[in-house]
Amino acid sequence: MEKLIRGMARVLAVLSAVAIVVMVIAIAIDVFVRNATGASLPGMIEIAETSMVTAVAFGLAWAGVNGEHVSVTLLTDRFNATWTKVINVFVWALVAFYTAWLSYSNILNSVQSTQAGEIRFGLVQWPMYPMRWVLTLGFISLLLVALINLYRSITSKGPMGYADEVEAALADEAMPDSAVNQTTETVEGGRQS
């Protein structure tokens, strides 16, 4: 299940990156046209806004998987393993509860917006309900990450992200020097051929 969640987060992260590129292009085109003609190109601001929502919502799960959300460890770094586990379980249970509530609320808002055919009026009429579903999908993906991290915290594996990096670093340190040298020689030998 964890592998599936990581894969989903990776796909959403790629879509988030694409949305950032689209947003930059839309803003650049709008600035160029505005400087050349004195008026905005219809639809560019709406495309940029839509891309921003997509970039943020689809990036939530990736940040959760990699442990890249904002965290302050000033106090928790001084705790022993038992207290660290208790704090991790509490925090991820709170995150899971909060994102479940956000997901539920956004599902209701998305359904209502879709039924009403919600439109934003600007230079062009722009449908809003697809972005409500994008935001809902972002919250649901973060909820799945929070549930996995809660499970990992309960089973003493620690949440995804930072702990994974520490485990990988420890595994690299545990590798004997002869294995590292052999790996290096193989890589260098592959370059020469």
Helices and strands, in order, run as HHHEEHHH
Q: Can you tell me the residue ranges where pLDDT is under 50 for at least 5 consecutive residues? A: 179-193
Classify the secondary structure makeup into a structural class: mainly alpha
Counted up, domains total 1
Question: How much helical structure, as a percent, in the residues?
Answer: over 70%
Which strand order do you get reading across the main beta sheet?
A: 1-2
Biggest pleated sheet: 2 strands, antiparallel
Q: How would you state the average pLDDT, rounded?
A: 83
Question: How much β-strand is present in the residues?
Answer: under 5%
> How many DSSP H or I helices?
6
Distance between the ends: 41 Å
Rg, rounded, reads: 22 Å
Apparent shape: elongated
Query: How many extended strands?
Result: 2
